From TrEMBL:
Transmembrane domains' residue ranges: 6-25, 32-50, 56-75, 96-118, 138-168, 180-201, 207-226
Protein name, UniProt field: Hypothetical membrane protein
Residues in coiled coil: none
Keyword list, A-Z: Membrane, Transmembrane, Transmembrane helix
Length: 227
């Protein structure tokens, strides 16, 4: 898990530097930085969506995942948990939840995460994850400067998600096939696009309720391949 540990460290270091820089910004600058981050996340989302080929499968997974998340009240539950953490760590951080969700999706949903983690689990080669770590460190600095300390807590998500993929590498090798990785990335892009819409105050979206769609997608793609 060397690659994941390096990734966690770069996110923590980048977030810390971003917080130091962000504290020096006046409110009007912070406001436009958040808008810039919103536009940036929309751009990331679109570039990820372009890789999709199974649009119906993504749509069905999104519907199934959203219904599951709504029934389980994931949005309310996780926001409540994040609210408790925020009240103890940084009660004056207005974008704690957005920072955590944005960074988690940007860092954990994509080809480099899946392929890099499984590759390290199978061969011990962490080169791809270390490359990703450098990118995530720079991105975490940018995100934390506008969205605050919530970005730092995404290091937990990186550790859990990438670590799990590495440990289960041999069993999850099928996810590295183009049909899975491209559409998994595309669905992640849809969720990241939704975050950008929220950050720009266009529409409030229960993004956390949609997260189960990422679990449904491989099953939906597999089933559709049998039909």
């Amino acid at each position: 898990m060397k690659g994941t540990i390096v990734n966690v460290i770069t996110v923590l270091v980048g977030s810390t530097l971003g917080l130091i820089i962000g504290e020096r910004f006046p409110e009007r600058v912070k406001h436009i930085v958040i808008q810039s981050i919103g536009l940036f996340t929309i751009l990331i989302g679109i570039t990820m969506i372009i890789k999709s080929t199974k649009f119906i499968e993504i749509f069905l997974s999104l519907i199934l995942g959203s219904i599951t998340g709504e029934l389980l009240r994931l949005n309310e539950g996780l926001e409540h948990l994040m609210g408790k953490i925020k009240s103890k760590i940084s009660p004056n951080s207005p974008h704690f939840v957005e920072g955590f969700i944005t960074a988690t999706l940007v860092f954990c949903v994509g080809a480099m995460t899946v392929v890099g983690s499984i590759q390290e689990g199978l061969t011990g080669d962490a080169t791809l994850l270390i490359t990703k770590s450098i990118m995530d460190g720079i991105t975490s600095l940018t995100l934390a400067s506008g969205l605050g300390i919530g970005v730092m807590f995404s290091a937990i998500s990186v550790f859990v998600i990438q670590g799990s993929l590495t440990l289960l590498g041999s069993r999850l090798l099928f996810l590295t096939q183009d049909v899975y990785i491209n559409n998994f990335t595309g669905l992640g892009g849809v969720l990241i696009l939704a975050i950008g819409i929220e950050l720009l105050n266009i529409q409030k979206i229960k993004i956390l309720n949609m997260l189960p769609s990422l679990v449904y997608l491989p099953f939906v793609i597999y089933i559709s391949s049998l039909l």
